[in-house]
Amino acid sequence: MVLRQEPTARQMRLAVELRRLRDAAGLAAREAAALLGVSSAQISQIESGLTGVSEKRLRRLAGHYACTDEALVDALVAMATDRTRGWWEEYRGLLPSSFLDLSELERHAAYRWDVDFLHVPGLLQTEGYARALFARRVPELLRDELELRVRHRMQRRVIITEAQPIPYEALVHEAALRIRVGGRAESRVQLARILELSEAKHITVRVIPFELEEFADITAAMVYAGGAVPKLDTVVRDGPHGAVFVDSEAQLGVFRTLFRRVEAASLDPMRSRDLIHRLAKEL
Q1: Angle CA(259)–CA(110)–CA(11) in degrees, nearest 5?
Q2: For residue 92, how many other CB atoms are within 10 A of its CB?
Q3: Side by side, which strands form the sheet with 222-226?
């Protein structure tokens, strides 16, 4: 079997979860290998995301690991057997792999939460806003690279605009709404777009107002993607070298708590819309 040169984040997540199940069972890789009749090296390759695993073998492993969470096992099987090539594959080799990994994560998410302080979340951005944002990147992008990123970002919106969208909630600081990315006219278009999208039943937008006192729970953007089961949730944070995918149960619990704190402190959807309307009139 040909080994993968660069496993996707989804393939790596499957590998990590299989390793976690084995560790929880207190078994060595050689014991798992003996069960499947393969070498320890092959188990290592499966647990490194370098090669796949069949449904039959995955279920045998899960049973041997005494995993009784049937929903989790079914979700892992779905990850292992999915051969769908998503729309993001057209960008492979053209954009950093983290862009594609985020698109794949979103495509399989049960729901999505965003927290942003300085920018409008990507799924809510207009084309002009996204272009202006990418244009400020350092080092500066070549025109073709910039347009690729803009087109990719616009295609990502499908998860909240398609016929069967996922539930989406965005917590956006007032600062992000006031910063004029792309100028006054584009800011006005961007605010109108947020208001338009927030009318949908599956989309909730809440504003974190300047007037909020003693607020320091989160100081950076956060993307929270709900998995098929809670154990497969994922948080994406911006790091110095690109996106960082967080998936440990302990850390996920912390981020869920932080999100709920920020949500509780934010304006309700109606008052948020009123504030956005007011900001638009000021432009």
Answers
A1: 100
A2: 13
A3: 203-208, 168-173, 111-116, 222-226, 234-239, 242-246
Q: Which of 81, 103, 127 is the last residue of a domain?
A: 81
Q: Which secondary structure element, helix H or strand E, spans residue 151, and what is its range?
A: helix 143-156
The CB density around residue 45, as the number of other CB atoms within 10 Å, is 19
Enter the pTM of the model: 0.93
- Mean pLDDT for 48-56 is 95
CATH number at residue 57: 1.10.260.40
Cβ burial of 13 (10 Å; 0-12, 13-18, 19+) is buried
Cβ count near 93 (within 10 Å): 8
Give the C-alpha distances (Å, rounded to integers) separating 97 from 87, 101, 144, 152.
14, 6, 17, 12
CATH of the domain at 134: 3.30.870
- By CB neighbour count within 10 A (0-12 exposed, 13-18 middle, 19+ buried), where does 189 fall? middle
Q: Please enumerate in sequence order all residues whose Cβ is within 8 A of that of 161, keeping only pairs 6 or more positions apart, or say none.
A: none
Q: What is the pLDDT of residues 6-23, one digit of tens each?
A: 899 999 999 999 999 999
Average pLDDT over residues 255-276: 95
